[in-house]
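Sequence, please.
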C-alpha cells in the first residue's frame, strides 16, 4: 500500500509539477509574457538631459530614436517569443510523456521505491530496531553516519577515536525507555542519556545533553533548507531574468555614477533568517500603485541593511514576486550627490535630475541610508523633503533607512511624509533566532572564507558574551562581529578550530575583563582580593571586605545578571581613601586605572548638567556619561560628591544603580551591568567625626550615620536602599597617615627608577612627614601635599645639581 501511495501520489504529483515547469521555463527564459505586454515598446527608451528653452533638435532626436527602437524592439521580441513558444511546447510534451509512462508502468518503478531515501522518522526507527539490544552498537552506528561526522565536528570530538573505543566495548542493554523515536535527533538524545561511555565522553569535554540536542537540531535545520531544484520551483522560474528582460527600460548613465546597484553586489550573508515577515511586507508595499515607499526603522545592528540586501538578492535570484524580478535596487551615494555644487539650490536640482532619470528608466527602486539627514533644517541636515514628497507620488519606489529616534524626531513630525511612507520596524531578534542565523547564514560563509571549523560551544559563548558585554550594537550584528573577530584571531594563532576560548580572548582584549572559566591564578587573586586592595588602601576594612565579596560573586556569576556587579555608597570625610579605593579597584580587578570612569557631580548642575550626562535632543549632542559607558561597558563608574547632584540627576541614577542601565536623550538604554558603581559623599562627615569622638562603636556607626543622612533629608530612603552596601569611611589616625606616607614614598621611588635616584625611606622621615601633614579634617590629602612640597621638590633640585650621581640614595632631613 505504501508503494502505491508513493508511486501514484508522491512521485506522480512531482512529475506533473516538473512537466508544468518544463513548459514554463522556456517562456520565462525568453521573457515571453514580458515581451507580449511590451511588444511595441521602444527597445531601450532614450533619456535627454533637459536644457533651458525650446530645442527642436532634441525633440526630433527623441522621436526618431523611439520610432526606430520600436521597430527593432518588435523584431527582437518576435524572435524571442517564437523561440520561447517552440521550446516550451517541446519541453512540456516531454514532461507530460514521462508522467504518463510513470502512470501506466508501476511495476517497473519498484526498484526506485526500494532505493529511495527514507524519511527521517523511518531511518530513526530502523536504526533503533536494528540495535535495540545493544546501546553501544547503536551509538557506534550513529557516529558512522553523516550526522555523526557533523556532530563530532561541531562539538570538537575525535570521531575516529570514539568509534574505535565503542568497537572494543561489550554489548550493553538499553534501560527501560518509553521514548518515542520520531527522528535521528531522538536517538542522539537517547544515547546521551543511556550510554555510559558516551556520557563520559561528553563530560570530559564539558558538554551536556542540551549540547547534543542543539547540535543534532542544527544538522536537521541545515538539511531542511537545502535549495529546491529550479525544475520544482515555479516561483523562481517566474522570477527569472530572462532574455531581453531589460529592453523596455532606459539606461541610467548619470545615476550609475552616483549609486551602487545592490542587485549586482552579492550580500555577504544572503541567507538571512528571521526577517521573512519584513521582507514580505517590503514586497507588498513596493507592488502598490501608490504609496509604494518604505522606511526601514531600527537600531544599529538589528540587520536593517542586511534586510534590504537580502531583498535585493531575492530580486536578483528570482525569489520574490515576479512583478519585482525585473527591478534594479539602487543605493544612492548621497554625500557624493550633494557635494561639489556652488549652492544648495544647485545640489537639489542635480538630485532632482537623478531622480527623474530613475523614474524615466521605469525599473528603479531607490535606497537612501540615514534618510532622516535629508529631512528638516536642523544642524547637519539637508532638507530634501519636498523632493521626497514629489517622488512618493510617482511609481518609483523609495526605501529609506533610519533609527527609531531619528524617525520620531525628524520624520514623524513632518506634515506629509509619514502618510506616504510605509514604516517597517526591524527589532533585535531573540537569542534563539540569533543562534539559527549564525548556524545557517553566517557560519557557512565564515568557514568558507577562513577555512576553519566553528564549534557549537563557541557559538553559544558568542551569543552569551555579545549579549553581556557589547552595548554599542544590537543582535544579530554584534554576534556576527564578535564571531568574525574570533575567527580572525584564531587563524592568527595558526588554528582552524574555533572554541569558546577564542571568543573569550576577544572580549578580554577589547574590554579588559576576564570571562570564561576561572583560572588557578585568578582564583588566587579572587581569594586574596582584600590583601591586594590593602596594598594601596590603609584602614577601611569594612569597605574593602564589601568590595571583595561583591567582586567574587560577580566574577562567578552568582548575582543577578540584570544588575551591576556591585553598587556602593561611600560616606566619610575628605581624604580618607574613598576615591583611592575606587582607583585601586579599577587597577586590581579591571587591570588598569584607565578603567575608572569618574564624574564629579559638582560639575553637573540643573538642567544643563542632566543634558551633559545623557545628551540633549535640542542640541543633538551625545551625553558624557552615556558615551563613556558605550566606550567602556566594563569598569568602575565613580560618581564623586553625589550629595551635590540635583534631584533630577538622582532620579536618573535610580535605574542605573538598581537595574544597571541608563536611558540617553534618544530613548536608548545604555548598559552598565558590567560596571561596579561607586558613589562617594562627604555628607555626614562631621557627624561621623563627632560620633567616634563620643565613643560610638564602629559596629553601630553605620546605622547611626544612615539614620542621620535620612533625617537630614540628604538622600531619601528609597535612593539609599538601591545600593548593595552603604559603607562608612572613618577618619585616619596618625598611625594610618604614617602608613600612607610610606606607600606614597614607595610609589615615588618606583617612578624615579628611570632617573637613577632613590629616596631613603626611613622611620625618621616618615614620622617627620606625618607630624607635619597630620590634619584629621583633611585626611591623606594633606600628607600628599607635604610630600610633594618637601620630598619631590628636593629630588627635583638634586637631579638638577652637578653633585648628583647615578644610583644615588638621597637622604632627606626634615
Amino acid at each position: 500500500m505504501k508503494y502505491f501511495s508513493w508511486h501514484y501520489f508522491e512521485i506522480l504529483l512531482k512529475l506533473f509539477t516538473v512537466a508544468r515547469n518544463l513548459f514554463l521555463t522556456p517562456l520565462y527564459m525568453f521573457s515571453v509574457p514580458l515581451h507580449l505586454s511590451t511588444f511595441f515598446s521602444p527597445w531601450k527608451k532614450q533619456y535627454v538631459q533637459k536644457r533651458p528653452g525650446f530645442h527642436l533638435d532634441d525633440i526630433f532626436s527623441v522621436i526618431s530614436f523611439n520610432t526606430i527602437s520600436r521597430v527593432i524592439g518588435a523584431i527582437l521580441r518576435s524572435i524571442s517569443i517564437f523561440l520561447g513558444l517552440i521550446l516550451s511546447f517541446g519541453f512540456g510534451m516531454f514532461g507530460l510523456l514521462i508522467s504518463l509512462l510513470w502512470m501506466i508502468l508501476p511495476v517497473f518503478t519498484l526498484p526506485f521505491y526500494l532505493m529511495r531515501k527514507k524519511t527521517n522518522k523511518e531511518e530513526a526507527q530502523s536504526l533503533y530496531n536494528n540495535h535495540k539490544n545493544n546501546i553501544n552498537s547503536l551509538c557506534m552506528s550513529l557516529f558512522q553516519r553523516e550526522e555523526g561526522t557533523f556532530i563530532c565536528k561541531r562539538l570538537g570530538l575525535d570521531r575516529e577515536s570514539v568509534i574505535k573505543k565503542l568497537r572494543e566495548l561489550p554489548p550493553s542493554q538499553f534501560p527501560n525507555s518509553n521514548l518515542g523515536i520520531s527522528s535521528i535527533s531522538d536517538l542522539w538524545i537517547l544515547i546521551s542519556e543511556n550510554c555510559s561511555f558516551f556520557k563520559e565522553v561528553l563530560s570530559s569535554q564539558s558538554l551536556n545533553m542540551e549540547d547534543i540536542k542543539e547540535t543534532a537540531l542544527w544538522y536537521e535545520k541545515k538539511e531542511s533548507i537545502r535549495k529546491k531544484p529550479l525544475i520544482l520551483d515555479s516561483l523562481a522560474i517566474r522570477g527569472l531574468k530572462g532574455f531581453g528582460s531589460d529592453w523596455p527600460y532606459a539606461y541610467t548613465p548619470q545615476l550609475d555614477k552616483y549609486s551602487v546597484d545592490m542587485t549586482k553586489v552579492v550580500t555577504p550573508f544572503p541567507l538571512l533568517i528571521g526577517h521573512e515577515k519584513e521582507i514580505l511586507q517590503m514586497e507588498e508595499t513596493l507592488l502598490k500603485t501608490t504609496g509604494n515607499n518604505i522606511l526601514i526603522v531600527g537600531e544599529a545592528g538589528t540587520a536593517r541593511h542586511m534586510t534590504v540586501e537580502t531583498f535585493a538578492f531575492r530580486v536578483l535570484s528570482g525569489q520574490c514576486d515576479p512583478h519585482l524580478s525585473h527591478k534594479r535596487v539602487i543605493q544612492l551615494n548621497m554625500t557624493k550627490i550633494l557635494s561639489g555644487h556652488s549652492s544648495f539650490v544647485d545640489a537639489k536640482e542635480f538630485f532632482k535630475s537623478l531622480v527623474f532619470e530613475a523614474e524615466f528608466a521605469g525599473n528603479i527602486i531607490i535606497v537612501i541610508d540615514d534618510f532622516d539627514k535629508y529631512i528638516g533644517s536642523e544642524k547637519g541636515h539637508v532638507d530634501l523633503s519636498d523632493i521626497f514628497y514629489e517622488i512618493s507620488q510617482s511609481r518609483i519606489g523609495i526605501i529609506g533607512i533610519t533609527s527609531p529616534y531619528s524617525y520620531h524626531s525628524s520624520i514623524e513630525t513632518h506634515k506629509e511624509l509619514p502618510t506616504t511612507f510605509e514604516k517597517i520596524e526591524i527589532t533585535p531578534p531573540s537569542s534563539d533566532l540569533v543562534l539559527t542565523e549564525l548556524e545557517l547564514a553566517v557560519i557557512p560563509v565564515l568557514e568558507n572564507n577562513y577555512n576553519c571549523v566553528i564549534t557549537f560551544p563557541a557559538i553559544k559563548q558568542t551569543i552569551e558574551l555579545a549579549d553581556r558585554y557589547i552595548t554599542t550594537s544590537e543582535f544579530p550584528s554584534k554576534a556576527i562581529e564578535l564571531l568574525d573577530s574570533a575567527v580572525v584571531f584564531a587563524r592568527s594563532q595558526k588554528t582552524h578550530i574555533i572554541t569558546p576560548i577564542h571568543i573569550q580572548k576577544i572580549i578580554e582584549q577589547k574590554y579588559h575583563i576576564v570571562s570564561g572559566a576561572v583560572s588557578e591564578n585568578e582564583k588566587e587573586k579572587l581569594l586574596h582580593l582584600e590583601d591586594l586592595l590593602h596594598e594601596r588602601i590603609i584602614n577601611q576594612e569594612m569597605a574593602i571586605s564589601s568590595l571583595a565579596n561583591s567582586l567574587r560573586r560577580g566574577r562567578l556569576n552568582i548575582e543577578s545578571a540584570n544588575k551591576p556587579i556591585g553598587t556602593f555608597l561611600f560616606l566619610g570625610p575628605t581624604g580618607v581613601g574613598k576615591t583611592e579605593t575606587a582607583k585601586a579597584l579599577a587597577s586590581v580587578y579591571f587591570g588598569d586605572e584607565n578603567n575608572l570612569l569618574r564624574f564629579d557631580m559638582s560639575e553637573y548642575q540643573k538642567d544643563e548638567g542632566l543634558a551633559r550626562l545623557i545628551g540633549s535632543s535640542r542640541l543633538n549632542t551625545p551625553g558624557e556619561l552615556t558615551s563613556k559607558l558605550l566606550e567602556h561597558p566594563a569598569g568602575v563608574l565613580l560618581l564623586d560628591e553625589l550629595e551635590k547632584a540635583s534631584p533630577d540627576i538622582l532620579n536618573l541614577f535610580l535605574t542605573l544603580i538598581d537595574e544597571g542601565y541608563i536611558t540617553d536623550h534618544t530613548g536608548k538604554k545604555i548598559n552598565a551591568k558590567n560596571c561596579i558603581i561607586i558613589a562617594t559623599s562627604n555628607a555626614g562627615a562631621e557627624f561621623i567625626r563627632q560620633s567616634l569622638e563620643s565613643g560610638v562603636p564602629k559596629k553601630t556607626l553605620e546605622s547611626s550615620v544612615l539614620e542621620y543622612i535620612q533625617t537630614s533629608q540628604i538622600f531619601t530612603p528609597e535612593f539609599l536602599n538601591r545600593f548593595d552596601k552603604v559603607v562608612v569611611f572613618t577618619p585616619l589616625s596618625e598611625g594610618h597617615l604614617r602608613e600612607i606616607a610610606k606607600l606614597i614614598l614607595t610609589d615615588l621611588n618606583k617612578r624615579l627608577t628611570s632617573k637613577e635616584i632613590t629616596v631613603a625611606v626611613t622611620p625618621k622621615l616618615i614620622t617627620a612627614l606625618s607630624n607635619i601633614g597630620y590634619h584629621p579634617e583633611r585626611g591623606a590629602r594633606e600628607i600628599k601635599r607635604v610630600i610633594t612640597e618637601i620630598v619631590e621638590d628636593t629630588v627635583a633640585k638634586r637631579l638638577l645639581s652637578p653633585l648628583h650621581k647615578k644610583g644615588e640614595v638621597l637622604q632627606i632631613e626634615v
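The two ends are 109 Å apart (CA to CA).
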